[in-house]
Design a protein that fits this description.
about 140 residues, alpha/beta, Glutaredoxin, five-stranded mixed sheet, 5 strands, about 20% strand
């Protein structure tokens, strides 16, 4: 477990673009099972690929795409352990992966990017992948 103070800047970076941290398993389940529309769920991580690729790629995709997820949520692996494990329950058949980027539509997983796809991938490539997924699954609307 990482101390929350250590990851505050990383959480703040996502909050600045509209992500809401999800801290409990119940909150993850409630959101995934009860929300209609699309949710981009980011499994944040301390590893370098989360910062140099994933977080920046997500930000770039959100800035550039006219299609936006309805909800932006994040759990932090190593901090929000129960919430993270619950998130992984919804990303099966993929194995647990952090960082990871999941797009849900009406509670169903429709797009997933695993750590091995993030590590070493330029943020522009991740952004392009996410923009394509947003175009397929998200409405042209504002982020909630």
């Amino acid at each position: 477990m990482y101390p929350e103070a250590l990851v505050a800047a990383m959480e703040h970076e996502l909050a600045m673009v509209g992500f809401v941290p999800v801290k409990t398993a119940k909150a993850v389940s409630d959101h995934i099972t009860q929300q209609q529309g699309t949710t981009l769920l980011f499994v944040n991580s301390m590893c370098g690929c989360a910062g140099t690729g994933a977080r920046l790629g997500i930000q770039m995709a959100l800035e550039a795409s006219r299609h936006q997820p309805d909800y932006l949520r994040t759990v932090f692996a190593g901090v929000d352990e129960e919430a993270t494990m619950q998130a992984f329950a919804y990303t099966k058949p993929y194995p647990p992966s952090s960082p990871a980027i999941a797009l849900f539509k009406d509670g169903a997983l429709v797009h997933f990017i695993e750590r091995h796809q993030i590590k070493g991938t330029p943020p522009e490539v991740l952004a392009s992948d996410l923009q394509h997924a947003f175009g397929l699954h998200c409405q042209s609307s504002a982020v909630a």
